[in-house]
């Protein structure tokens, strides 16, 4: 057990920013496609690797992140059109199993293209101390970019025709189709947006730690925990769940050894399923 340190809280905000952004993309995909896509972690990894490749070519880092996001979005659309669309009328469990195969394929394709080595983004700069908290330049990038992307996505969901159509189709696909919404085209938009979000989240995850072929797969547990905690298909719940999970996981070091903190996500997942199966903003149960 260790004493409370404000540094733990700040690190939790950084981790929460990563989880919240990734969880938002996954819950948007689930809301319309109605199945858990286990290949989502590979979208994160591909976004990080594409950005890394652009950085190797001396592309400015902001542009590299943009290219990584677009690349991940394109991969998400291609996998949906080529693979998942063929099983759209099947049971969601079938799609879940298919997504496992897609995940293995994308992960091994990373190894073919980039190899299995571990890579790092080099982000230099001074780390100022604010109120006793050491703030790394990489952490500033992660939190700032995450907040901007979250704000942009919620602006799209609430103020644009595509966003309103996405929310309507997520609530009731059949009713949205009757009201004249082109749900087939909407699936492409959602796949693209979800993939772009995943690509950005993957790049930021690489900034925070390192870049490996399994980075997205290993990050799936906290992402799923945040989505389920916030309520599957609920964008606001996913973001709140992501920040709660990130902060809670870091503060748990106060009570448990640091090597056990990754299990915190599983604990929250179990408690959430037992007490609030409909999410944080759903009805509580016993």
Automatic annotation (TrEMBL):
Protein localization: Cell membrane
Primary site of residence: membrane
Keyword terms of this UniProt record: Amino-acid transport, Cell inner membrane, Cell membrane, Membrane, Transmembrane, Transmembrane helix, Transport
Record field: transmembrane: 12-40, 60-84, 93-114, 134-157, 186-207, 219-246, 253-274
One GO process term, biological-process aspect: D-alanine transmembrane transport
GO cellular component: plasma membrane
Membrane topology label: Multi-pass membrane protein
One Gene Ontology term of the molecular function aspect: L-phenylalanine transmembrane transporter activity
InterPro entries: ABC_transp_permease (IPR001851), BCAA_transport_permease (IPR052157)
Keyword Lipid metabolism attached: no
Family: Belongs to the binding-protein-dependent transport system permease family. LivHM subfamily.
This protein's name: Branched-chain amino acid ABC-type transport system, permease component
The species this protein was found in: Haloquadratum walsbyi J07HQW2
